[in-house]
């Protein structure tokens, strides 16, 4: 981590951190929407050939997966946002890797799955925020701050 705790981060870093907070908030919304649309998502993802017991198991797995996924995602991204604001270049690198993975998975998910319109909208907004995060994290002023 850089040795400039008293230095105020440049606007590109502040914007990057705000985008991280927005992504965490969208993850909360996406998790809630996953619960709202759970039956529809199970029916779409699992097909119609499942027994009632198998569909119940898929619902339970979906709930557990959504909650655990959010807790891990949220905690990791909050920590990375805090370290990015403090000037940790390694946090920018980790966020870059996670963001690129998120972009790839997000595009494939949007193209491959039939999903409710609201979840689709959240997915598109998330992709736009990922792109913006990459842009702002790698601005010249961000690099100067994070590598000082």
Helices and strands, with pairings:
Layout: H1 11-36, H2 38-46, H3 52-86, H4 89-112, H5 117-137, H6 140-146
Task: Provide key terms for this protein.
mainly alpha, 0% strand, elongated
Which consecutive residue ranges, at least 5 long each, have pLDDT under 50? Answer: none
Q: What's the pLDDT, averaged over the residues?
A: 88
Percentage of residues in DSSP E strands = under 5%
Largest beta-sheet characterization: none
SSE pattern: HHHHHH
Any idea how many domains? 1
SS element count, helices:
6
Compute the separation of the termini in Å: 9 Å
Helix-and-strand structural type: mainly alpha
Helical residue percent band: over 70%
Total strand segments: 0
Return Rg in Å.
Answer: 18 Å
The coarse silhouette is elongated
């Amino acid at each position: 981590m850089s040795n400039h705790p008293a230095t105020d981060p440049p606007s590109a870093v502040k914007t990057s951190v705000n985008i991280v907070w927005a992504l965490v908030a969208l993850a909360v919304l996406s998790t809630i929407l996953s619960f709202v649309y759970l039956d529809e998502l199970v029916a779409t993802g699992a097909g119609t050939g499942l027994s009632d017991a198998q569909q119940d198991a898929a619902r339970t797995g979906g709930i557990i997966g959504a909650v655990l996924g959010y807790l891990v995602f949220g905690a990791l991204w909050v920590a990375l946002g805090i370290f990015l604001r403090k000037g940790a270049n390694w946090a920018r690198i980790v966020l870059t890797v996670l963001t690129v993975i998120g972009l790839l998975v997000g595009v494939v998910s949007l193209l491959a799955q039939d999903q409710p319109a609201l979840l689709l909208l959240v997915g598109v907004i998330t992709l736009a925020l990922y792109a913006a995060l990459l842009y702002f994290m790698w601005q010249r002023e961000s690099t100067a701050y994070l590598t000082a």
